[in-house]
Amino acid sequence: MIPLSAFPSINAALNATCALLLLSGVACIRRKKIAAHRACMLGACAVSALFLACYLWYHAHHGSEPYRGTGPIRAVYFAVLLSHTALAAAVPILAGITLARALRADFPRHVRLARWTFPIWLYVSVTGVVVYLMLYHGNPVPAAVPLGSR
User: Fold this and answer.
1) Non-local CB neighbours of 44 within 8 Å, separated by 6+ positions
2) Contacts with 78 (C-beta within 8 Å, 6 or more apart), sequence order
3) Helical residues (DSSP H) of the chain, grouped into ranges
């Protein structure tokens, strides 16, 4: 069984993998490598679905993790988190419609929507990793200060 504490790292790895698949998929379609593009984008969909399942499971069992950073970085964290969360809500809908249009071979409409879906989905994937790094590695909990040194 996977320990609960491993899920934030797993989720960040899934987000990073999705970002790489999205970038690879766009590079493939620009080179007219249709089959490779399809494989990358289906992979991105699968990785995102796995991420969502892991994310929901983790938060159902752990709850939310408070951000402990202080000063100006706190405002940066919440700005990134807010934009990430707002756009993340749109990704399943945008990606689903974009995928459905491709599977129906409705390529003109697929391309028009993909031009919006791709940057939003990429932003959400990358900022997911950024939020993870800021939350779990950016501001370690300060060590206790010995009483005599205050």
Assistant:
1) 18, 21, 22, 25, 95, 121
2) 67
3) 7-30, 34-62, 72-103, 107-133
Tens digit of each residue's pLDDT, the chain (150 residues): 999 999 999 999 999 999 999 999 999 999 999 999 999 999 999 999 999 999 999 999 999 999 998 899 999 999 999 999 999 999 999 999 999 999 999 999 999 999 999 999 999 999 999 999 999 998 655 544 455 544
Nearest to 11 by CA among 101, 84, 117, 100: 84
User: CA 73, CA 148: separation in Å to the nearest integer?
Assistant: 30
d(CA 52, CA 19): 15
